[in-house]
Write a structure and sequence with these properties.
The chain is mainly α. The protein is built from 7 helices and 2 strands.
Length: about 210
């Protein structure tokens, strides 16, 4: 799932835990993606593409067991909960952060192809419902999901348009007839990583400011 809609998930968590700072929630919902960015730049995890990139289905998250696996996510969420809840006696924050971390993997399991493993160093089957293999349907799903998060939160008109504009801005990644920056990304995994990193930062800032 693209960054704007992971950030939108933070609105649901904020609705449930209003006393938890939004900045903490926004970091939690993107934490494993931030790890993915760092590990891709370091060459630990690997992203590849088809010879021609026309949509998100032509980008393959080849190796990412440390940032995106069932066990690593569970360990990260449990560790955050232990530190915040038991260590700092911040029960709501601990639960909110743990939920935020887990929400990212749940949404990626829905959207990704089969590229999510059970655990690092475990040679096992991979999971993913493969919504990105049908990009136009993924675009509709992501946009509706972002709007749903905004509606449930009861957000402002400005926040609504932020979610809409960023989803529309990503349309070329889902609809092959719309040309966009993805056409320049074939065999350039670092450019993909950089764009995702930029989207994480920009969407988090805007959702944080207008939530």
């Amino acid at each position: 799932m693209f960054a704007i809609n992971h950030a939108a998930t933070g609105l649901i968590i904020k609705k449930i835990y209003p006393d938890v700072p939004m900045v903490v929630i926004l970091v939690s919902v993107q934490l494993i993606e931030i790890l993915w960015v760092v590990l891709n730049f370091l060459g630990v995890e690997k992203t590849i593409t088809e010879d021609k990139v026309q949509s998100v289905s032509d980008v393959h998250l080849k190796f990412m067991p440390f940032s995106h696996s069932l066990v690593s996510t569970a360990v990260l969420a449990a560790g955050a909960w232990i530190v915040l809840d038991l260590g700092f006696k911040a029960a709501d924050m601990g639960t909110a952060v743990a939920l935020g971390i887990c929400s990212h993997l749940v949404l990626d399991l829905i959207s990704h192809a089969r590229d999510i493993v059970i655990a690092p160093f475990l040679d096992s089957r991979k999971f993913g419902l493969g919504l990105y293999e049908k990009p136009p349907f993924a675009f509709v799903f992501e946009t509706i999901y972002g709007i749903f998060c905004w509606w449930l939160y009861g957000g402002s008109a400005a926040l609504f348009w932020i979610i809409i504009v960023f989803n529309i801005a990503n349309a070329s990644f889902f609809i092959k007839a719309i040309p966009g920056p993805e056409r320049l990304m074939a065999h350039r995994p670092f450019s993909i990583t950089a764009i995702i990193a930029l989207q994480i930062i920009v969407t988090a800032v805007l959702v944080g400011l207008y939530s």
